[in-house]
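Sat 14:20. Reprocessing the chain from the morning session after the first attempt stalled halfway. Input below, unchanged.
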Amino acid sequence: MNHPAVISEEDLLNMMDADIAILVLVQGTLTDGTSHYAYVSIPPSRYMMFKEAEASGNYNLAEFGKILMHGKGKEPPHDVQKQMETEYGANHCFEEQLIQWVEALQQLPKKET
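Finished this time. Tokens:
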């Protein structure tokens, strides 16, 4: 009889880290008070730690992933956005689209069980 292989959470995260990266646009203020943006590629195993650190407001972004591009100002310039879309598949409308998808799913009739 074939039994499904049991994999640990750590092994699963290691496999995901080898194949997947989460591209995040981080916007904030540096310790000197200047606005700054950064695109960072974060391995799945570090993403939740990153979100916790981001919520605390005081962290070193480089500890969580590879900084692909960064610059001064809250918003990246249009040419930088286009470059990130072309090179890394960045979707600058993802969060808005996700909200729309979730709202549409919530409007679907519920299945009776």
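Residues 48 and 84 are 23 Å apart (CA to CA).
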